[in-house]
Structures are given as structure tokens and as C-alpha cells.
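Bumping with the actual sequence this time:
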Amino acid sequence: MVVHLAARRVERFVWQRADAIVTITSYFRDLILETGVAPERVFVIPNAVDDAAFRAAGDGAEVRARLGLDGKVTIGYVGAINFWRRVDLLVNAFAHLAARHPSAHLVLIGDGPDREGVAERARALGLDGRVTFTGKVPHAEIPAHLAALDVAVIPHSNTYGSPMKLFEYMAAGRLVVAPWLPPIVSVIGEDDGGVLFPPLDEAGLTAALDGLLADPIRRRTLGARAREKVMSDYVWRRHAETILTIFGRLGGPLAPVGPLTGAGA
């Protein structure tokens, strides 16, 4: 408790003396504002993506062939396989759909302490041959793996983080199925690059995937919309320019590089 209180005092000391504060979500902005910092000094800039890494990702054909995914409609997840990310929720939802969509296949890209538990759950649900675990994949190969997916899923997240996988899914031109949480809906909306479901709602996730598996045109349309949005608004280069603009307005030696929108929003 003493350490916690000391840390909070240090935070307050730093925040109240900073000319500007950049944070990744409105959750952290609100925490900072509660200490009395003026709203016009706090800027929310979410995470983003290296757009260059996704410009030459290809169409995913090599990955699909290597993983035996040709002719399948692929639902995928990229990231650590641990409990709080609730990959088990995605497996459960997929199990409800497997019989109705015989060409559907679940691809779990990554590794983690709960991989064996999730694999055992898939076997218990009769999903042998319907789920592929790739294991850990080098980050440089993630764009090509995402290109091999038809639907990209965030099974669960939180109210304070800005999930990198959200932006990487979008950069790969994949629509995002994700829980309705503030850091996510601040970036995508229902049918605006994403399909949303109530957090931890297995039935809601199942229904979202069911509709997409049956509608390839919608999948492509939403994926293209997601890519257009991320490439326009959520690339690291653009964020760097925004931060330089903030610095320039504070009287720094670097001149502002363009108009700043959404300051303090």
C-alpha cells in the first residue's frame, strides 16, 4: 500500500508539471484528468501499425497452402494464448458453428501457457481437424498469416488497452470481430470495419461469426473498409507527425507539420 501511494504521488507530480501528456486510451486520459490536469494538455493517440510491413504481405496463398487451408473459410486469432485473452471463448463459439459451416476452419496463430488447455477443449468439443495451431510466428511473418484469414477475431480485451492486433488485423484488410469495449469502438464501429459483440458473450460472438461465414461479400466489404481506415488514421508515421505538432505548439524547435484534430478528445 505504501509503495502504491508513493507511485501515485510521483504520477501526480509528473502529470501536473508536464506541458502535454500523450496517452493511448480515454481510460488513462480520465485518470490523468482526475488529478486536476487541464483537459487541453492531455491528448489521446491510440496505437497504430507500420503500414510498410503490410504493403507487400501478399494474398496469403503460400500460408494457406502450407497450413492446408485451401478451400476453407478461415476464422483466425493472432496473439498470446493465455486465459485472460479468452481464446477458449472463440473455440466454444466456433464449436457451435462447425456443423453448420463445414468449410469453416479456426486458425490460432501464436503460443502461450494455455495452448494445451485450449487444444484439449477443442478436442473435447469434437473439433479434431477443424482447428490449426501454428505455434509462435515471427512478427515479420504476421502480415502474410493475416492475409490467409477471412475473419479476424479479438475474443476479449479490456477497458484500458489499445490492442495492437486490432490495427494489424485492419492493416491486413481483415474485418475485425471484437467485443464492444471503449478502446475498440473508438477505432471501429458496427459494419464500419468491424462486427461487435457484448464482452464475454459467447452467444453474441457465435452470432457474429455465423453471419459472416455465410456472407463473403460482407467479409470483403468490411475488410476493405477496415484497411482504408487504418491506413488513413492509424499508422505510426501519422501519429509521429501529430506528436511533433503538439511539440511545435508548445514552442519546441520543430515547426508544426500539419493540422491537429481530436486534441483532448
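The C-alpha cells above came from a reply further down the thread. The CA atoms of residues 114 and 195 lie 26 Å apart.
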